Amino acid sequence: MSSPSVTSRPTTLYGGQAGRRITVRDIAAAKERGERWPMVTAYDAMTARVFDEAGIPVLLVGDSAAMVVYGYDSTLPVSVDDLMPLTAAVVRGSSRAMVVADLPFGSYQSSPQQALETAARFMKEAGAHAVKLEGGRRVLPQVEALVSAGIPVMAHLGLTPQSVNTLGGYRVQGRGQAGDELMADAKDLEYAGAFSVVLECVPTDLAERVTASLSIPTIGIGAGPGTDAQVLVWQDLMGLTAHPAKFVKKYFDLAQEMDRAVRAFADEVSTGAFPTPEHSYR
Q1: Residue 200 catalytic?
Q2: Among 77, 126, 185, 281, which residue has the least CB neighbours within 10 Å?
């Protein structure tokens, strides 16, 4: 009899049993049974372990690292070499979650060959299980090349931060005729082989229509409650971001708790209260 930890699908994506990695087949099965699931970003092994043990099924090593890790004011400056060690750390820190690596700006747009070379590095050197790239019909050749090479692709439509300069800033996308174009892009990406599509900052009704029209799951961020999954940057949901976007819900004030803890440490050091004999060696 086959071992269930190797061959069976988890009964649920969120909070399911460990034993093996989540795969694109599990993601597809969740869509079929109407299960909604969470995705969060991760950039290091320790937080990846926390999220993995909490049952988060997909961890995204986002190009948002440009801002929350490296301190840039947009996602554009981050490079493949910047994201590679972060991706490897998240893979090492997790055991169940699918780890998706963002392909940074300039690493896939020029040709399918460039996209394949970049994605192959993330898969071979960092151990990623899938990659994410931004754009609609203009990146269909890239998506097809990656899928043909056996690399799962998560697509990204709507507000695509790598195109913020051509979009005219961080604005809602997909209103009016642009909504029909986004719908067409989503269907083309599904046909090209993408296993899921992120919808960022699009009207709720459009996200619902796209979700209903696709057999692959949609992952919303600022797209309302009608998508199959939701994603947030972990620093946003934990309250570390000073001015989060409208779509962010703060679940914890980690910034305040960190401030309290580090001040307590500093006060005890300055007064000589730390370290005590309990925290010293003989």
Answers
A1: yes
A2: 281
